[in-house]
Amino acid sequence: MVVLRGHDRLDGTAQAGMSDKLWAEHTAELRRAYEKDYGASSMFAPRFSTYCEAFADGSSQTAAMAQHALELAARPTPLQKARSSDHAQLSAAQEAAARLQSDTESSDEEAPEGAGAAGAGAGSASS
């Protein structure tokens, strides 16, 4: 099996991560473009592998590559995913802290009244 940069979905190329459907379209577009540019009988045509190389870094593009680039741009990056996760964790922690503070304030408000009445009664009895 021959692997071609610019044709196959290799890491580090513009085709990396391309879906099967887009890759099939990309392959067909590459072959049609090569045939159109050089024809089957041209003895000055570059090898197909050399022709494909220009597509590896995206300097030349097929319509399928352009669609793939749009799909990649629409996906959240790992950093965006991490920030989103961090934000969700921070929000949950803030909500928990607010509930704890609210519960503590409620307990503090109730305790002095009950303690004050018990303390006043005990102080009256000893006088």
How would you sum up this structure, described in words?
The chain is mainly alpha-helical and 127 residues long. It has a domain at 20-74. The protein has 4 helices and no strands. Helix 1 packs antiparallel against helix 3. The radius of gyration is 34 Å and the shape is rod-shaped. Mean pLDDT is 79; it is low at 116-127.
Give a quick set of tags describing it.
mainly alpha, disordered C terminus, 127 residues, 4 helices
Q: How far apart are the first and last residues' alpha carbons, in Å?
A: 102 Å
Q: Tell me the helix content.
A: over 70%
Give unreliable regions as ranges.
116-127
Structural class label: mainly alpha
User: What is the total tally of β strands?
Assistant: 0
- How many strands, what sense, and barrel or not for the largest sheet? none
In angstroms, what is the radius of gyration? 34 Å
**Average pLDDT score:** 79
Q: What topology does this entry show?
A:
Blueprint: H1 20-38, H2 48-56, H3 63-74, H4 78-126
Outline:
The protein has helices spanning 20-38, 48-56, 63-74, 78-126. With 127 residues, it is an all-alpha fold.
